[in-house]
Specification:
The chain is α/β, with parallel strands linked by helices. 34% of the residues lie in helices and 19% in strands. The strands form seven sheets. Strands 6-3-2-10-23-22 form a six-stranded mixed β-sheet, covered by helices on one side. A five-stranded mixed β-sheet has the order 1-9-8-7-21. The chain starts with a helix and ends with a strand. It binds ligand NA7.
Length: 547
């Protein structure tokens, strides 16, 4: 197959031989290009969007904002960049982050190696020649010994295939595919489906515009106040003075973020009064890591977690005036922090508005979309001018499985992963040589500050490629044993926590038929990085390299 593809390449205009192909032009793909260039390699990236930015290019829904503070959520690889960039607010919003990414693309002259509006459709590895042949939907056929998948963790939006959606006469939107020109909901009857992070951020803003907003909630999520606001210039100056040390310290933390003193005791060793004061202080401070860091065992001990969960439920009961709505909004089916803990601005307060109604989509599921709105299982008809799906993503594996990735006549990656993703360190897949995944399943990825995770992965990959070059090696792949042991370890670690108690996208629970496998590594970023470094120091233990 590769030879045919290569013949096509030489016949067409969109061909080329590179040292590495990068799939994706988001934060991961751009850093990959930069890092490969520093190794002296010729790389090319393909990006489906009409601009760089990945997640931050697509997710333009009202209120889209990072839940990691802006001084942390940025690249660390260049000190001048982090010193010179000014973030206007405590948490970056979508347009500020996209502006930053575009600045980085220009500043490091990365754009010339990114081909936009191009989706990679297939990648095929020829073991005889150690060459990947990569095809795109624009007819490109390019080759390179290495392929770097920077395809993102939340990049395949999921619009549930509701019956009747094609009949709807109004407009519908998905938060992850938001129109660039924005949407004005003023005076409209709007239905919002989904109350994950995207819904929680968007709902308060749409509520202020809409004539009436119905929110369809299937599962209540915990959300904490973000306490966003203008950047405190003193904090910024202090942070910048300590940037280098803080970035280094972040590597020694579980979430890849420094500055939060680690907790020292169990929630159960504190008196009820102490706990209340502690949670109250964290609630006032804003932010999710700080809150989960109240005690050592919130994510591992159900009784400890109950104290934190109940504190937040009581906050919801205190904010939301209608007791029935408050009880519906108070999550009871999962421990706090085991699904993505949302950060919001006035989310619960929004339900005190006269023009907002919460619908229990668990008790009365959405049955079908109709011409004029939707109908729930109890036969109630809702009329809408617009419907917003905040229904999430085929997380962590969706984008990779959409590409036909094969090694000769072997099974496609999607077939290998039918029972759930398997990787070694979330970096490589056994049987798929010379293909690296940036923040792949089995790595800390979404459980950390993503940019730290991206830089750590790409730095490791660059060192690996440098070592291979030095040793005259042409091929690397994990051994099946190393992959099996790592997958087991990822699952053992998850099973020692409360995470598996939640039906979250971490286990693929939001995609019907997706195997229930815990995908991110929750053993903490610090331990994970040490493991990756030790693997490299021990001669790339668990990988086989060949000439
Ligand atoms: P999420 O967190 O996956 O949330 C999707 C929401 O959509 C969630 O509340 C789902 O309920 C809901 N959903 C999905 N299908 C339906 C149907 N059929 N009916 C009703 N409700 C439905 O995605 P987000 O975009 O909010 O956030 C993704 C990540 O982006 C986030 O965690 C941050 O890391 C950034 P469910 O919980 O499945 O019952």
């Amino acid at each position: 197959m590769s030879e045919v593809m290569e013949r096509e390449a030489s016949a067409g205009t969109h061909s080329g031989k590179f040292d590495a192909i990068v799939v994706g032009g988001g934060l991961g793909g751009l850093y990959a290009l930069h890092r490969l260039r520093r190794l002296g390699l010729k790389a090319k990236a393909f990006e489906a969007g009409s601009g760089v930015g990945g997640t931050w290019f697509w997710n333009r829904y009202p209120g889209a904002r990072c839940d990691v503070e802006s001084l942390e959520y940025s690249y660390a690889f260049d000190n001048d960049l982090q010193q010179e960039w000014h973030w206007p607010e405590r948490y970056g919003n979508q347009s500020e982050i996209l502006q930053y990414i575009n600045h980085v693309a220009d500043r490091f002259d990365l754009r010339k190696d990114v081909q936009l509006n191009t989706r990679v459709t297939a990648a095929d590895f020829d073991r005889g020649r150690n060459i990947w042949t990569v095809k795109t939907d624009k007819g490109d056929v390019v080759t390179a010994p290495f392929c770097i998948m920077a395809t993102g963790n939340l990049s395949t939006p999921r619009v549930p295939d509701f019956k009747g959606i094609e009949r709807f006469k109004g407009k519908w939107y998905h938060t992850g595919l938001w129109p660039h020109e924005g949407v004005d909901f003023t005076g409209l009857r709007v239905g919002a489906i989904g109350t994950g992070s995207s819904g929680v951020q968007m709902i308060p803003i749409v509520a202020r515009q809409a004539k009436h907003l119905h929110v369809f909630q299937r599962t209540a999520n915990f959300s904490l106040p973000a306490r966003n606001g203008p950047m405190d210039l003193e904090i910024e100056a202090r942070h910048k003075a300590e940037y280098t040390d803080r970035r280094a310290a972040a590597y020694d933390t579980p979430f890849g973020i420094a500055g939060f003193p680690p907790p020292t005791k169990s929630a159960l060793d504190a008196t009820p009064e102490e706990r209340e004061a502690q949670y109250e202080a964290k609630w006032a401070e804003g932010g999710s890591i700080s809150f989960l860091y109240s005690y050592t065992d919130i994510l591992v001990n159900k009784a400890s977690n109950d104290t934190a969960s109940e504190f937040v439920r009581n906050k919801i009961r205190g904010i939301v005036k209608d007791p029935v709505t408050a009880e519906l909004l108070a999550p009871k089916d999962h421990p706090i922090g085991t699904k993505r803990l949302c950060l919001d601005t006035n989310y619960y307060e929004t339900y005190n508005r006269d023009n907002v109604t919460l619908v229990n989509a668990r008790a009365t599921p959405i049955e079908e979309i109709t011409e004029n709105g939707l109908r729930t299982a109890d036969g109630t008809e809702y009329e809408f001018d617009a419907i917003v799906f905040a229904t999430g993503f085929d997380a962590m594996t969706g984008a990779l499985k959409e590409i036909d990735i094969r090694v000769g006549n072997g099974p496609a990656l999607a077939e290998k992963w039918e029972g759930g993703p398997t990787t070694y360190l979330g970096l490589m897949v056994a049987g798929f040589p010379n293909m690296f995944t940036i923040t792949g399943p089995g790595s800390p990825s979404v459980k950390t500050q993503m940019i730290v995770a991206i830089e750590q992965h790409m730095d490791w990959i660059a060192d690996c490629l440098g070592t291979m070059r030095q040793r005259g090696m042409a091929r690397i792949e994990p051994t099946p044993d190393a992959e099996r042991d790592w997958v087991q370890h990822v699952n053992d670690v998850a099973d020692s926590t409360l995470y598996p108690l939640a039906n979250s996208w971490y286990v693929g629970a939001n995609i019907p038929g997706k195997p229930r496998v815990f995908m991110p590594y929750v053993g903490g970023f610090a331990g994970y990085k040490k493991k990756c470094d030790a693997v490299a120091a021990n001669g790339y233990e668990g990988f086989s390299m060949s000439k």
